[in-house]
Specification:
elongated; 83% helix; 13 helices; single chain; mainly alpha
C-alpha cells in the first residue's frame, strides 16, 4: 500500500511543471521576510534619554527642588536678620547634609516599591535609570550648593575653601551613609531602616555643630580629609551598586 501511494506521488510530481522564475522569486521573498524578522530597531541615545526622563519617578526630584527653594528662602531671611557668622556655618552644614539624603532616597523609592524589577522587564534598563537619576539630582544639588557657597561666603565673609568644605562634606557624608544602607537587603526592603538612617544623620549634624571648635579654621585639614575619604567611599559604593544591578542581586532580593 505504501509503495503504491509513493508511486502515485511520483507520477503526479512528474506531471507538475514548476516555473524556475517563480521558484526563484518565491525563495527570494521567503529569505527577505526572514531577514526582516531578524532585524531589530535600536533607539538613539537621545530618544532613550528623553523617554526615560518622561517616565521616571520624579516625586523625590520635585521634593528636592522644593527643599532647595525653602533653603534659599531661609538663607535670604538669615541675611536680612544678619544672623551671626558661626550660626550661619551651622545652618549650612545641617542643610547641606539633609540635601545629600535625597539622591539615595530616590533610588530607595525605586527599589523598595519594586519599580526597579518592573523597569528591567520593560523597555528601560535599571542601570540607565539610576544613572539618569544621578545626573538630575547631581546637577541640581551641585548648582544649588555652589550658589549657596558663594552667597554665604561673600555675605558673611567666610573664605571660599572653608565654606566649600562645610557645604560639601556633609553632602557627601549623607549620600554615602544612605547609599550604604541602600546596598543592604534590609535597607532596600524596609523603609524604616532608611528613615532611621536619615534621622540619625540629622541628629549627628546638629550635635556636630554644637561643638565649639569643630568649625575653627585650625581643623580645616580634618574637613579636607573627610571630603577626600567620603568621595572615595562614595565612588566604591556606586561601583558596588552597579555591580549588584548587573548581577541581578538587587532585583532578585526585592
Amino acid at each position: 500500500m505504501d509503495k503504491k501511494v509513493k508511486r502515485l506521488f511520483e507520477e503526479a510530481q512528474q506531471q507538475m511543471f514548476i516555473e524556475e522564475e517563480r521558484k526563484k522569486s518565491g525563495i527570494a521573498n521567503v529569505v527577505h521576510s526572514a531577514d526582516l524578522k531578524q532585524k531589530k530597531t535600536w533607539a538613539g541615545r537621545w530618544n532613550v534619554f528623553w523617554n526615560q526622563s518622561r517616565y521616571m519617578d520624579k516625586t523625590i526630584l520635585w521634593i528636592q527642588l522644593l527643599a532647595e527653594a525653602m533653603v534659599a528662602f531661609l538663607f535670604c531671611v538669615f541675611c536680612t536678620l544678619e544672623v551671626p557668622r558661626q550660626d550661619m556655618i551651622a545652618y549650612t552644614i545641617v542643610c547641606s547634609g539633609m540635601l545629600g539624603v535625597l539622591l539615595p532616597a530616590a533610588l530607595h523609592r525605586s527599589f523598595a516599591s519594586n519599580m526597579a524589577e518592573l523597569s528591567e522587564t520593560c523597555y528601560f534598563n535599571t542601570k540607565q535609570m539610576v544613572v539618569l537619576q544621578m545626573i538630575y539630582f547631581g546637577i541640581s544639588s551641585l548648582v544649588f550648593i555652589t550658589i549657596g557657597i558663594f552667597f554665604v561666603g561673600v555675605k558673611w565673609q567666610i573664605p571660599l575653601i572653608q565654606i566649600s568644605l562645610y557645604g560639601l562634606v556633609p553632602f557627601v557624608l549623607s549620600g554615602g551613609c544612605c547609599l550604604g544602607a541602600l546596598l543592604t537587603k534590609k535597607g532596600r526592603r524596609n523603609s524604616y531602616t532608611f528613615a532611621s538612617t536619615t534621622l540619625f544623620l540629622g541628629i549627628f549634624y546638629m550635635t556636630l555643630v554644637s561643638i565649639p571648635w569643630i568649625c575653627d579654621s585650625t581643623v580645616l585639614f580634618l574637613w579636607g580629609i573627610c571630603l577626600l575619604v567620603g568621595i572615595f567611599l562614595f565612588g566604591i559604593q556606586l561601583a558596588l551598586l552597579f555591580r549588584y544591578i548587573d548581577k541581578g542581586e538587587i532585583l532578585c532580593m526585592n
